[in-house]
């Protein structure tokens, strides 16, 4: 599949008003410019993909400096699988103009970290009864064992634990506006992650 994708920084949410007067909630993303840092082909690597880089880096180690030889110091590198990798060259600059208004895109980011959370907040458990002597078990998970066989708690069972800081992909969002001069794109709806967080915007892969 031919894939186009760019890395960017989430700026924040605002709203736009279209020609009919409808108020549209959008998220502004500073998208690109990104540099093609590596081209992989079926002949050389066994599959087709490109690696793109975004954001200035202040320090690089020796392997990174060698990998980015004759390129700017880039902080974030991501690989994008695409069938037309042969049409790209190392050092090529990709900007926000690869997307157009009305296009459907997917946005990949890291969700906000919430720290340690209980089962009610983390997995929307109902909690225990509020009466019959329950004084401190209203938000408890409850019994999660499996009786005498196997007589233990299965690995991966939902429960309290670290919440957030996970890779989240939001599908089929609409591009509301593209500002090529300022490398900004307005995407309808909310995007994962905090303001200032790294996101990847790609063309939609599961178009309904």
List the helices and strands and how they pair.
Layout (H helix, E strand, L loop, with lengths): L4 E13 L5 E9 L2 E7 L1 H4 L3 E8 L5 H6 L6 E8 L11 E2 L9 E7 L4 E3 L1 H5 L37 E3 L3 E13 L4 E5 L9 E6 L5
Antiparallel strand pairs: 1-2, 1-12, 2-11, 3-4, 3-6, 4-5, 7-10, 7-12, 8-9, 10-11
CATH level 1 name of the largest domain: Mainly Beta
The largest sheet, given as strand count, sense and whether it forms a barrel, is: 6 strands, antiparallel, barrel
Q: Tell me the series of helices and strands, N- to C-terminal.
A: EEEHEHEEEEHEEEE
Overall tally of structural domains: 2
Mean pLDDT: 93
Q: Rough shape? A: globular
Please characterize this protein's 3D structure.
This protein has helices at 42-45, 62-67, 119-123; strands at residues 5-17, 23-31, 34-40, 49-56, 74-81, 93-94, 104-110, 115-117, 161-163, 167-179, 184-188, 198-203. The protein is mostly beta strands and 208 residues long. The chain has 2 domains: 5-114 and 169-203, Beta Barrel (Elongation Factor Tu (Ef-tu), domain 3); 115-163, no CATH class. Strands 1-2-11-10-7-12 form a 6-stranded antiparallel β-barrel. It has a 4-stranded antiparallel sheet with strand order 5-4-3-6. The protein has a two-stranded antiparallel sheet with strand order 8-9. A hairpin with a 5-residue loop joins strand 1 and strand 2 (23-31).
């Amino acid at each position: 599949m031919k894939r186009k994708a760019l890395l960017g920084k989430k700026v924040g949410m605002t709203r736009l008003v279209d020609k009919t007067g409808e108020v549209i909630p959008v998220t502004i993303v500073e998208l690109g410019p990104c540099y093609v840092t590596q081209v992989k082909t079926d002949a050389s690597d066994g599959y087709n993909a490109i690696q793109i880089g975004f954001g200035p880096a202040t320090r690089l180690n020796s392997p990174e400096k060698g990998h980015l030889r004759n390129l700017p110091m880039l902080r974030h590198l991501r690989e994008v699988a695409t069938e037309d990798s042969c049409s790209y060259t190392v050092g090529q600059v990709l900007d926000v103009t690869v997307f157009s208004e009305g296009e459907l895109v997917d946005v990949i980011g890291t969700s906000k970290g919430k720290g340690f959370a209980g089962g009610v907040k983390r997995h929307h458990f109902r909690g225990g009864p509020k009466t019959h002597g329950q004084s401190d078990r209203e938000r408890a998970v409850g019994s999660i064992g499996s009786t005498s066989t196997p007589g233990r708690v299965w690995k991966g069972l939902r429960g309290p634990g670290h919440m957030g800081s996970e890779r989240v992909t939001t599908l089929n969002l609409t591009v509301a506006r593209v500002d090529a001069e300022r490398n900004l794109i307005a995407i309808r709806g909310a995007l994962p992650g905090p303001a200032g967080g790294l996101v990847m915007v790609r063309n939609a892969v599961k178009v309904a």
